[in-house]
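Hey,
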Amino acid sequence: MSELPLVLIGGWGVPVTTVLPLAAHWPGPVFSHSLDDRAIRPGGRPDDLVRSWLETLDGPAVWAGWSLGGQLAMRAAALAPDKVAGVFTCCSTPSFLAREGWASGMAAAEFSAFRIGIARQTRRFWKRFLLLQVHGDGQEAAGREVLKPWLLGGPPFSRETLLAGLDWLAELDLRPDWRELDLPRQHFFGENDGLVSRGVLQAFTAAESVSHLVPGMAHLPFSDYAEALARQLALFGSTLAIRTGDGAGDQDGEQDGKRQGRP
């Protein structure tokens, strides 16, 4: 039996290599995608990007994503369920912003202020965002060390890409997808995440959806957190491979960053 391929999508502001350790135990092919200058362009639409990735697959795959990447993985399932065997998200949310009937999101005014900061002082506010990813983490000092290469190097994407990605975060409201998608999925959240409220954990109880709270973790899965999640993801994939009865054959598409390390 062939192993299912994995489509791994990174989050806003950093390359997918930041969370590539989540694929450390995946037995099959890994297709990784950064939300970089090639993927996100001013005027581009999230669904168009997801469709372009779907077109590279000949059959079903497991889709996994971190933060904004998890939202796009859920869109893939909604757009082409025949090509999504299951979805695995880490620190993702149906709606990053608070909305009517949705309190588990960032206040619009706070988000707007951050966007203005990125537009005017990109490097400074991008660094602030990176540090928020490990703020309050049970291993915060170690997390800062993990982020140090990125902090020293500065934003890897253009200001225009960063702003366009923020616009996606502001507009995406995927509550119907989270409620209605009838396919296997696992959602993991950080107990100490300052960017995605743990309130999301109890928001949806779809039949095939399972949510987990990772003790001590903030927004970024690294070190022991990444290792534990990588094992969970591999187990999830093995279960889905048995369930589907087969995996996928040869896949087309660029393997962006497969098994790469940090800079």
